[in-house]
Amino acid sequence: xxxxxLGTGNLATQLGLALLAKNAExxxxxxxxxxxxxxxxxxxxxxxxxxxxxxxxxxELYILAVTEEAIPLILRDAPIxxxxxxxxxxxxxxxxxxxxxxxFGVFYPLQTLSAHKTVDFSQVPICVxxxxxxxxxxxxxxxxxxxxxxxxxxxxxxxxLHLAAVFVCNFVNHLYTIGEKLLQEQxxxxxxxxxxxxxxxxxAMAFSPATVQTGxxxxxxxxxxxxxxxxxxxxxxxxxxxxxxxLDIQHFxx
Amino acid sequence: xxxxxLGTGNLATQLGLALLAKNAExxxxxxxxxxxxxxxxxxxxxxxxxxxxxxxxxxELYILAVTEEAIPLILRDAPIxxxxxxxxxxxxxxxxxxxxxxxFGVFYPLQTLSAHKTVDFSQVPICVxxxxxxxxxxxxxxxxxxxxxxxxxxxxxxxxLHLAAVFVCNFVNHLYTIGEKLLQEQxxxxxxxxxxxxxxxxxAMAFSPATVQTGxxxxxxxxxxxxxxxxxxxxxxxxxxxxxxxLDIQHFxx
Lengths: 254, 254
Description:
In chain A, 47% of the residues lie in helices and 14% in strands.
């Protein structure tokens, strides 16, 4: 399958590398930023362009790996014709692609990607969706070449997945950040918290999180809750987050 | 070192087993609940009592592994004399033990413990504190027999650690719970989120969390934030949590 990658960010890069490692044929990289586009094309060992009119017109799959807002900007006037076009976004409905091709779908890897760290794609769930069975089969086959976990997920489910991912990844990482900052204020090393962070995540691999909740809120230990709220007086935003989540733990488990 | 365990919960059990595995001499278990006390003593292969007056008076270390609120209840009229007495709590100041012995300290394992899962104590940070250098050395030595990570931490630092632990463990687990419930509403399996949960935790092992924050809030993607808030209309408490954490991410990183 001859693939054109549209986009040059973390997702385009890591997805491109995962495809390349499985001998997928990435025939071109298109991007808006010259040096980013050249860099990724160099990694892929393929031609590149920053001129939309120069996008190869006879590829079999066009993977749009850009932020939600950039999707319509990239697609406007792009010569995709009726070849299979997919986006890679959690919260964008598949149907917005109908204006640009008769063959379209979604190829959504559910993972957090950053430039710092290469992800093992074989364990990344890939959620596929397509406008018909034939296209769905093509996307599933491609997804299976790079991942052991491929799921057919519709647009409504996918946006729910994305929302849940914000809670368990983006918000969780921010709570790690708060923990790190609180420790710094007492000259304590963040590594003290690392075994706890790992154990908490590992527990969620084996048990329903609702069944293994611990801590002062679920124990109803008001003395500790009051002490912690008092300790957070210098951080009113964190105090509010502490209060809200503690109340929600108590409400959820009551 | 002849040790008496006061308490029979998850911490008493897992700490007792970790000590036993290193050939520590647990000579008695005291608890208030007969069957719980007998069960733990059976695991330890030692005598037990639920009668405070029968607590062995010539042990070298008394480990109080009970909830914060139970500490004064257990210690009142307990015949500890002036042997070394420690509690195991994150948020209780060491000095409250001064009323019960001239030799006291804290032995605080920073980990989440539940009946479901045995923890590898060798990787659990143990925070020790004592009323004098000799007692601190005793506790450090004991801690080193069961863990590779032993830290001397004072009471002010320890309560900050406990507060940070609530954020990175208890609150994180509640966010996992919210993610699980959101998926259930769309008939999606929680295992879809597991690679993301693990990757997020693993990333915190290698990087400062503040430097690897991702997601719509830090990207300033208002369309997605608005969509997510709308999707959470049926869950006003989760909507409020979403809003507060998103705002704090933007505030923190601005």
